């Protein structure tokens, strides 16, 4: 298992796609094993997992949109998504 830190660079694994379901007005995460409806926090984090920006930059971008963003929470979300094989690190 990879140790996550602020310099880690997350990206969606191959075959994983985050999209917006207009009918349900929510994000859905499509991956080979199934479908996941992420909560708004996870969707915001996932939308920034491009394989270029590190966790520190993702946190900075989220702080521009939301109050109270904590790096530990972002690392926790990414760790759980990594355990589910939804994200990986470059």
From TrEMBL:
Monomer. Interacts with PqqE. InterPro entries: PQQD, PqqD_bac, PqqD_sf. One of its GO terms (biological process) is pyrroloquinoline quinone biosynthetic process. The keyword Cell membrane does not apply. Pathway: Cofactor biosynthesis; pyrroloquinoline quinone biosynthesis. Keywords: PQQ biosynthesis. GO terms for molecular function: quinone binding. Pfam families: PqqD. This is Pyrroloquinoline quinone biosynthesis protein D. The lineage of its organism: Bacteria, Bacillati, Actinomycetota, Actinomycetes, Pseudonocardiales. It comes from Amycolatopsis decaplanina DSM 44594. It comes from the Bacteria. The keyword Zinc does not apply.
């Amino acid at each position: 298992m990879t140790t996550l830190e602020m310099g880690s660079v997350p990206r969606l694994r191959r075959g994983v796609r985050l999209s917006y379901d207009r009918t349900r007005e929510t994000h859905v995460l499509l991956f080979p094993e199934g479908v996941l409806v992420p909560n708004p926090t996870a969707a915001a984090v996932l939308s920034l997992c491009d394989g270029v920006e590190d966790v520190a930059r993702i946190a900075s971008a989220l702080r521009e949109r939301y109050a109270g963003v904590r790096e530990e929470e972002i690392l926790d979300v990414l760790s759980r998504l990594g355990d589910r094989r939804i994200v990986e690190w470059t």
